[in-house]
Amino acid sequence: MDALEGHREKGGLAAGYFCTQFPAEILAGFGLYPIRLAEGATFESEREGEKLIRPDACSYCKSLVGNFRKKSGVFGKVDIIVGVITCDMMRRTLEVVRNESGLPVFQLQMPATRSRNSEEYFISEVERTANDIKAFLKTGFDHEKARRFYNARKACAGILDDIVSKGALPPVILHRLMHLFGVARPEKLKLFLESLQPRLKPGKGKLRILVVGSMICLEDDLVFRILQENGAGVIPVGISENGPTEFYSGIKLKSKTGNRMIKELAKISFKSDICIRQRPNFPAYRKIKAAIARTECDGVILKCMKFCDIWYSEKERMKQELDVPLLVLDTTYSDSEEERIRNRIEAFLEILKKH
Ligand code: SF4
User: Fold this and answer.
1) For ligand 1, is residue 146 a contact (CB within 6 Å)?
2) Which of 14, 40, 81, 306 could form a cystine bridge with 33, CB 3.0-4.6 A?
3) What is the pLDDT of residues 30-65, one digit of tens each?
4) Could you read off the pLDDT of 176-225 as tens digits, one per residue?
5) How many whole angstroms from its chain centre is CA 20?
6) Structural domains in the chain?
7) Which of 318, 248, 243 has its CA nearest to residue 276?
């Protein structure tokens, strides 16, 4: 956060984004400081957001509106916003955030299908958004800067994947580390991870739980805290998150010009981002099953935001398709839910111990 302040004090701008389908490398290529806005997840911000958007919006959307309304924390430190329209509620939220924050909001549509045409459409949406940002900033796109950002994040992704598969960190610490991936300067995070990795030992003999579902923000760590208190390990699997997995698992970026780089990044994002929302979504199931097999996890927790139909509507199919026990949780940011969630997770762990 100090580095972000320093960047802005020197006249630099910061770009807040939500869904990772719009590659942060494009923001870095414009000299922006990319910040994934996956924090500020509090009941207060949710209540504040409810003053402006429907109460049946998901907690994430409500907290975004609440935080931009209050300009709290990192939400007071972004200069532009890039939003991918993942659902109807996010589309409405971006409109309200634009009016509330007074900040320029660059938005693009995420295709609801997965096909050659929707890929072309998505790439054109990313290129259009990049051109709009370029016109707003009146500056060029530095593809070498974007490449350096990508390469540093790729290195971070490899180490994080190793840490996750070894089960080397307690759930809450791992959750925070995964969050850092979306906000940290990748070259600095790389140095930190390289210093941390050799000192970590593989986790032993614990129940291992794969956690998948809606966006999980920094403060929304109840599931991780309860798993940690019960001595269980966690495997966070960001499906529609170009986090430290698929997006960075490919080969090095090849492009030698700005326009080609933006197109290449959009293509990698579409091909690697196996969003549960895009139909057919069997690639998302393939990824979850691969993670279950690779990590030999004992069970899966599907953590849905309340009112997030995109994930909640998958629960029956997941029960049928996954060959390990599944616990479905429907959550908000309210503290009053802690006992209910705790009882459900502890009962689930008891079942797994008997398995
Ligand atoms: S969590 Fe679900 S409902 Fe909320 S913005 Fe994301 S996709 Fe939409």
Assistant:
1) no
2) 14
3) 999 999 999 999 999 999 999 999 989 999 999 999
4) 999 999 999 999 999 999 999 999 988 766 789 999 998 899 999 999 99
5) 6
6) 2-139 (3.40.50.11890), 147-246+278-354 (3.40.50.11900)
7) 318
